[in-house]
């Protein structure tokens, strides 16, 4: 009996044996895998490498930014401390006479101590090498303990103030002393209250120093 002829219009793949079909299928899968590797996986790998490189760059920029931030914070904190020190120094040793503030501090201290500040007379400044004395003649009246409290209070003022040339005169409240009626003595004090101010290195203070040979 004659062999059956292949049906008309059948493809070459259909005429292949099973092993050939499997081989063709494997070849097709290999080609698909190669194309995937070339066009997809390789692009993804390049993108991943670029992303890692970008991540490293960003981390470096972040560390640099954090270092700048830390340095800025330190500078800011130091500036705040410097401004606070300068403000405190200005209270202790201002660069202007500030005579009204000087007198107001003395009057407030006298009021707290119960002392009567009867007179005050500003005196000309006395320039020194880096500072100037700002004197003021004062006359006070009060009891011993009140005068002592006043001098103690002056020492607590932020601004540096010296009490110099102190002269005391004792007076009696009723003018006489009787053994059966003790009289509380009252003291009249004349002194020189001296504040200080820092000299500026230029401007009017510089001209004063040059004029005095300082």
Automatic annotation (TrEMBL):
The chain crosses the membrane at residues 22-41. InterPro entries: PilO (IPR007445), Transl_elong_EF1B/ribsomal_bS6 (IPR014717). Keywords: Membrane, Transmembrane, Transmembrane helix. Pfam families: PilO (PF04350). One of its GO terms (biological process) is type IV pilus assembly. This is Pilus assembly protein PilO. It comes from Polyangium fumosum.
């Amino acid at each position: 009996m004659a062999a059956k002829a292949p049906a008309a219009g059948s493809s070459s793949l259909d005429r292949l044996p099973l092993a050939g079909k499997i081989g063709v299928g494997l070849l097709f899968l290999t080609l698909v895998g190669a194309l995937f590797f070339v066009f997809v996986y390789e692009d993804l790998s390049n993108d991943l490498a670029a992303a890692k490189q970008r991540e490293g760059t960003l981390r470096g920029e972040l560390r640099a930014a954090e270092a700048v931030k830390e340095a800025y914070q330190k500078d800011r904190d130091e500036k705040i401390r410097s401004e606070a020190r300068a403000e405190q120094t200005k209270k202790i040793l201002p660069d202007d006479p500030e005579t009204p503030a000087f007198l107001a501090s003395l009057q407030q201290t006298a009021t707290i101590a119960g002392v009567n500040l009867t007179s005050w007379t500003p005196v000309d400044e006395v320039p020194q090498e880096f500072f100037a004395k700002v004197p003021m003649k004062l006359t006070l009246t009060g009891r011993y303990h009140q005068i002592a409290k006043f001098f103690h209070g002056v020492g607590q003022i932020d601004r540096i103030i010296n009490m110099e040339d102190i002269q005391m005169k004792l007076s009696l409240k009723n003018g006489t002393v009787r053994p059966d009626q003790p009289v509380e003595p009252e003291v009249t004090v004349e002194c020189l209250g001296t504040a200080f101010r820092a000299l500026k290195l230029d401007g009017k203070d510089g001209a004063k120093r040059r004029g005095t040979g300082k």
